[in-house]
Prior knowledge:
It is built from 11 helices and 29 strands. By secondary structure, the protein is of the alpha+beta class.
Amino acid sequence: MRFYLISYHGALMARTADRTGITHLSVGQIRDREELVSVDLDPDTFRQPFVDFIEQKASLPTEADVKFLGPCEIYPYPASRTVAIARNGSFASAPPGGTVEINRTEVKDWEHFLPCSDEDLDFLQRLLAEQWIVKSTRSLINPETITFGEKFNLHIGHLAIPLNYNLPFDQKHAPFRFTVLSEGWKVNEILLFKPMIYYLAFGEDNVFQQLSLSLVSLGAVGHYKGQVWVYSDRDLASIRAEMPWVPRDRFTVKPLRPNDWVGFVAGKYCILEDDDAHHYQPVIYMDPDIIYNADIQAMLIAMAVSDKLTAPIEVFSGLEHAPSVGATLLQLDHELPRFASGFNCGTIGIPNIPSQLHHLKLIRRVICNILGQRGRSALQWVDQEAANYVSYKIAHFETHEVSKYVRWGFEGPQIPIGPLTGLVHFWGVARAGRPQVMRDYLDRVLRHHSLPAADAGKTG
């Protein structure tokens, strides 16, 4: 197996530009892996098998041809998962910032090298191209702040992650989350942060007025910088004509033409067929009748960190008696949820689609099967009923984290501007008057944040 060599200082060994020596290259400087020093090794040579660790078997040196160095002896150091390289009785050394010297008589820090596979190098390079979340602190890490340093350390936020005690990285949940051992043994996770929010918008102008107001608040107040998708029966040109302020590089319209209520509400699950959507984390569905009243980054991070689907609880909607959250299906299945409450599907957080595909497809199948048997009008809140039913049966929606960011907007007295939790969902307002109620609330939120007031066609 081919391995590249990382120095004690966290850089890769590579041929110098004039091809006369060996020098250091940072991970971000690598353009051509053929210029990197490499060697074919059995991983067990330096990563002691667990049985050998238990039996305390000695690790013996071996001979190998090292690219650009020629025939060498490889001395394994299983305790540190590193190797030393010798030629003609002298050890190779990598002083910081200089060229490799093969003149040492003993092995100290600079004489240790860490073998790194192509797969692990792929990951290290990707680290420098994406945003990441440190799970223990929920801090968001920008790629330009990620560095490599002494003792083979990878520095991500406050974490010092010694690569020699972390390679090979567990790829089970790649590319979305990776388990890391800071200081060599403290368990943590880093998670990809590449959010995408998507909406459904069909039919009458009323819905597109709601969408426009929601998108104004998403950028201006929610401070959202990720991708936005809209599944719609209108094309990109017509939506842009109404909302010209939407960022061109972050806004996508996906064609979808449902012709009844089932399609309008259950169309959200069509995203499972879109391969491009499978690369984002988190993926968030939002109803268009939502106004954002504060920065939503913390909510997005909570959705990404969760290993479950997330949605806000409706404490006033009991699973035992409220059809809107699945009571009909639960009763037909002879379940007794007693005092449990359901959740609202106007906000759904998906950590990433591949990890939740089974549960999302199960919800879709329940929708198709029950409506196929009983007719498309059998369930008034079909998507939400099916999701709550499936969640109750296999306990896979989490409501605690996201609920604190969501408020409800109802008919009646003017909704107070605060608390500024993250968003207000105006599903409780009659459809005809909903855009005006949303606009009035958005105006007050914008004034509170000292932002220009409220023409949705001009604010963004």
